[in-house]
Predict the structure.
Amino acid sequence: MTDKIWTELEKHQPQSLVDLFASDKERVANMTLEHSGLRFDLSKTHLDSIALGHFETLAIDMELDRLKTALFSGAAINVTEGRAAEHTAERGYGAADAVMHARALQDRMRGLVEAIDSGFMGDIRHILHIGIGGSALGPKLLVDSLGRDGARYDVRVVSNVDGAALTEAVKDMDPHKTIVAVASKTFTTTETLLNATSAMEWMIEGGVQDPYAQFVALTAYPDKAIEWGIDESRILPFNEAVGGRYSLWCSIGFPVALAHGWAVFADMLEGAGAMDRHFRDAPVLENAPTMAAFADLYYAQTKSCQTRAVFAYDERLRLLPDYLQQLEMESNGKSVTADGAPLGRHSAPVTWGGVGTDAQHAVFQLLHQGTHLIPVEFIASKSPGHDFDTAHHETLLVNCFAQGAALMAGQHSGDLARNYVGNRPSTTILLDDVTPSTIGALIAFYEHRTFVNAVLLGINPFDQFGVELGKQIAKSISENGPIGFDPSTAALIEAALGDH
């Protein structure tokens, strides 16, 4: 049945975007959804009633409702690792015991935030957050996007094992007034612990008498953090069933809660929870994450679009494309189904993007006139993040909307160098404002959209075995040098590391 549905979708040839609007005067209303302070405009995609009918059937055939229920009930939906995916429990929606456990751990985190505010760890001015992957990308996005009005503490996020990144982060920080938050689910991540050790050395060299007293551990394995030397009172545990790229809602979000205050963190959780309710309860064609996933699948699967471009027309969301790269590509960059069979279809497209209006003068040439068909997503806010002349924000939004219109309509010319073919799809997400609540809802929307994409492809989005092989080989190089490697790799090891 599933193969037949995909065949029908591949055979279907919808009208051009311009003609879709001409033939349906209600298309904007029919293809626009509003929830949680977000407006999702999918009208500039080629989804029509026929395609949507096929996707509805596919959702039934792939048991989307059953798997959605499993996600929210705490069932072992991560089948390859035999455990649940309980990030929604951090927002109040999941198995009752998981929700209760999440609230208890959040209360512990809130207690530490309030203790630090009251001077428990001394006169603190800086937070050095050390992690990698989801342990860094989420906090970095949120600290940057919410910190434009002035954070309560100066936060630096370090993920790269290149010592230059750590050097840059600490160069104007006072080690006596710094908390180092070490974020590692297993507390065994090589890059994170190496950076943490170097941060410890920086503190010692700076004259800090008891540097361990200024370290906080964010981990699902507290015993490992205790072994490393961090006192139990400064360890913030989280549920092992919360994956790294879904973890900013738990103690990994500690620098956000500390920098901006608990009320901000709570608002972010509530915004995400509102999107959880919407995704859980809304019918398919009124469900924003599900409809967005239908558009994703239409282009990746039936039009063989290998990439998806995301452009944030708001400086506060400049790090969102980086965050989405991991969320989407680590979740759905798989070549096998959850049952272990070959996927037999394209997996997730490559997610890439940038910030408007910068990107218009860099990559939009290819989007408008290149030979690749690339679905584009625009993200903007009705309200500006600054107090300068309103002309700044008006110009920003005008450019954003103009790009979507130009991609769709094109412009025909006898001079081929000036010809724009048009009929190129885009979606637009318009926020009322960039607030903790809307950012929470936006990120939860992307999480659920990624989940729907996975379900309809039969993928397990909650494992990431593909990141392990490189780690294993790196360990082998560290321990054995060039022995056993191909000639190119062996020569590179000798050239760069031969004297070490």
In short: The chain has 19 helices and eleven strands.
